[in-house]
Amino acid sequence: MQNEISGGAPLQIAHETAIDDDALLLWILVWSELIAFGILLTAFLIMSGIHADDFAVARIHLNPGLAAANTLVLLTSGWQAAIAARRRASPSTARIPFCLAAAFGLLFVVIKCIEYAAEFRYSFDATFSYFFQLYFLITGFHLLHVVFGSFVLLLVAWRPARGNILLIATLWHAIDLVWLVIFPIIYLV
């Protein structure tokens, strides 16, 4: 009884089980997101094969320079998240890198909105409808993840706990990974 009250082994086991449950839920979320984006990107590749000429012309209306800048912004954000999640770092030292990671995430959103403003008018052209429907669906879905992840980064920066730091850093890297696949498939292929 004394061991349970004073924070001995039974409470430690309960704490470790809670962290394991959080990690399991995180990995279910990450894999489900990777599968969802995989399906969307597969649909994009299939449609780009079926409508190759229309997709090639539609790509001319994209801005790969802004997308490349956004790639650098998101990678810098991921680097800051990695700094926050260093193994020996204390939770309080995660605050500044997570705030920077969130700021770069929100900069990604601003750049993407600037890009969307220039591209939106082409989405009404019937020739490009398949391309831009999939383009806005895929990149918009990713953009929502960046917005949500940026706010979670700020929330964890405000109240850092070691388990939460590792969870959001992992989720943020999954968001980075998805963009690193989206970028070449949509803009460069």
Question: What features would you describe in this structure?
Answer:
- With 189 residues, this protein is mainly α.
- The chain has one domain (2-188): Four Helix Bundle (Hemerythrin (Met), subunit A) (Up-down Bundle).
- 83% of the residues lie in helices and 0% in strands.
- Helix 2 (9-50) runs parallel beside helix 7.
- The longest helix is centred in the N-terminal third of the chain and has 42 residues, at 9-50.
- The N and C termini lie far apart (64 Å).
- The model is unreliable at 1-6 and 11-16 (pLDDT under 50).
Counted beta strands = 0
Q: Main sheet, how many strands, which sense, barrel?
A: none
The CATH topology turns out to be Four Helix Bundle (Hemerythrin (Met), subunit A)
The total domain count is 1
Distance between the termini: 64 Å
Strand content: under 5%
User: Overall pLDDT, averaged?
Assistant: 87
Count of DSSP H/I helices: 7
Q: What is the CATH H-level superfamily?
A: Cytochrome c oxidase, subunit III, four-helix bundle
CATH architecture annotation name: Up-down Bundle
Specify Rg, calculated over alpha carbons.
20 Å
Order of helices and strands, N to C?
HHHHHHH
Query: How does the overall form come out from the CA principal axes?
Result: elongated
Poorly predicted ranges: 1-6, 11-16
Name of the CATH first level: Mainly Alpha
